[in-house]
TrEMBL record:
UniProt cross-references to Pfam families, sorted A to Z: UBA_7
GO biological process entries: negative regulation of proteasomal ubiquitin-dependent protein catabolic process; negative regulation of protein K48-linked deubiquitination; negative regulation of protein ubiquitination
Superkingdom field: Eukaryota
Sequence ranges assigned to domain UBA in this UniProt record: 113-146
Native organism: Vitis vinifera
GO molecular function, one term: K48-linked polyubiquitin modification-dependent protein binding
UniProt name for this protein: UBA domain-containing protein
GO cellular-component term (any): cytoplasm
Amino acid sequence: MILMFENPGQLEAFNKLKAEKKAEGKEVSGDEIFRPRVPLEACLASFSAPEEVHGFYSTALKTKTTAVKYVYIDVPDIIDISHMRSRGIQPGEELLPEAVDEGKVESEKLLANEEIVAQLVSMGFNHLHCQKAAINTSNAGVEEAIIGCYHTWMIQI
């Protein structure tokens, strides 16, 4: 069964954007990521849809056959989700800091050292991965950034 999205046009646009970025050797930024919305009713319909079971051994027929499995869901009139409600800050948790001035945050962002990035790119690494590696290693040097590039490369395999 195919799940029906509430926003199929946005999903198609995101898949197109993702393909374009991949063709350019770029990655989709966190702001551009799309998360499909699937109605609960569609999830339940998919879960409870009849399903063919091939190779089912029937004791009545004394042979293997194809059977159909049905799932019935008993849904109460009232669903209590109060257990999902927040109970405030818990032991071991800490509050996030209050919002700060955007201009201050922008000026404090660490930028990739272009010399490190250029050396890594000349070795054949992806430019964006080189920038990320330099930033993730606080521009500590080419050697450290190479390890970062290899780490990113290994994760993608």
